[in-house]
Design goal:
Blueprint: H1 2-21, H2 23-47, H3 61-109, H4 115-122, H5 126-138, H6 144-158, H7 161-168, H8 172-214, H9 219-229, H10 235-252, H11 256-281, H12 289-323, H13 329-335
Helix pairs in contact: 2-3, 2-6, 2-8, 2-12, 3-5, 3-10, 8-9, 8-11, 8-12, 9-10, 10-11, 12-13
């Protein structure tokens, strides 16, 4: 027993050290794996498209899905770059509005603004703040070349997986059992990635409508950011609400749009995150809230902001895999919220 415990501790320490030391290679691979699953999910939908009873995209579905993802990522990069330049131009007006808001707040409350706050407001550089923030977001795609190489090789490797499986498991009965288990894992992971992406897209689109209605500047950029932040549990939703509402405060020089956005975006996040998403996910996202927070902290410490974005996808995928093997099913049960797992039979 002591030897087994020692071996377990050493293994965990080695894995953590590997995650830290191999960060430069593992982060792009993790991003590539998520993109690969998104491409796979989109390709599956494209293959199912029927025109007059014929499915014409069967053999080019992966290529079309890859084109869709490339166009989306290119559009994201251009949008972020264009928004940063526009904010730099509008930054002086925003800084003036910050001073006006502080003066109005002092008039309403009868409390003079502290000199330290006034000094901070006068020295605030909105352009630099937004530039740094956008640079942090773009940093997620900093290894775009390596991510692209990983995605290509994952797509190429996929076609030979069945051949390797036949060689690894020559016994037909055992191969069928393994194939059934792997298919279940694949379906569950694909379902999670697809639903999470669609729910995040819905959140971004509805938030975009609200932002346009209120008249917030750079609504497409904020909608994109809300879409991305939706992958970060709890904290991501909070940031997705606070950032655009804070901009409305400095843009409009009044509290009306701020309150409207705070209520509207907050309501959207609550309804979609706490009502719609759990219904769609079912047992695919049956994670304990404590595990979610621990995963967020762990991967955030390991891989920074990128780790926070990837924390829940990595944890969900890990739980799905662990649940489908009898030896590790107890770990998956401990990670789940209610102990009910979807496993292969």
């Amino acid at each position: 027993m002591p030897q087994r415990l020692t071996a377990t501790i050493v293994t965990i320490a080695a894995v953590i050290a590997f995650l830290v030391v191999g960060k430069s290679l593992l982060v792009p691979f993790a991003i590539a794996l998520i993109i690969w699953y998104i491409i796979d999910a989109i390709a599956l939908k494209i293959r199912g498209l029927s025109i007059f009873g014929v499915r014409p995209f069967q053999h080019i579905s992966v290529f079309l899905a890859l084109v869709v993802v490339i166009l989306l990522l290119s559009g994201v990069a251009q949008m972020i770059g264009g928004t940063v330049e526009q904010v730099k131009v509008a930054a002086p007006q925003y800084q003036d509005n910050v001073s006006k808001i502080l003066e109005r707040l002092a008039a309403l409350t009868g409390v003079e603004v502290a000199p330290a706050i006034a000094h901070w407001a006068s020295g605030l550089d909105m352009g630099k703040m937004v530039s740094d923030f956008a640079a942090a977001i773009m940093g997620l795609a900093g290894n775009a070349g390596l991510v692209a190489i990983y995605v290509v090789f994952l797509l190429l490797e996929e076609r030979y997986f069945g051949i390797k499986l036949r060689i690894m498991f020559p016994d037909a009965d055992r191969r069928r059992k393994v194939t059934r288990m792997l298919d279940t894992i694949q379906i569950q992971i694909r379902q999670y990635v697809y639903i999470k992406t669609m729910v995040s897209a819905l959140t971004g689109i509805l938030s975009y409508v609200v932002l346009l209605w209120v008249g917030v500047d750079y609504a497409p950029f904020w909608a994109l950011l809300i879409f991305m932040l939706n992958y970060i549990p709890t904290i991501g939703s909070l940031i997705a609400v606070l950032l655009p509402t804070a901009l409305s405060l400095v843009q409009f020089d009044t509290f009306g749009p701020f309150v409207t956005l705070l209520v509207s975006l907050g309501t959207l996040q609550v309804l979609i995150g706490n009502v719609l998403e759990p219904r769609l996910m079912g047992s695919s996202l049956n994670l304990s809230p404590l595990v979610v927070i621990l995963a967020l902290s762990f991967w955030g410490q390991m891989w920074g902001v990128t780790g926070m974005f990837l924390s829940v996808p990595i944890t969900v995928i890990s739980m799905i895999i662990l649940a489908n093997f009898p030896q590790t099913r107890a770990i998956a049960v401990a990670m789940s919220e209610n102990g009910r797992l979807k496993i292969s039979t």
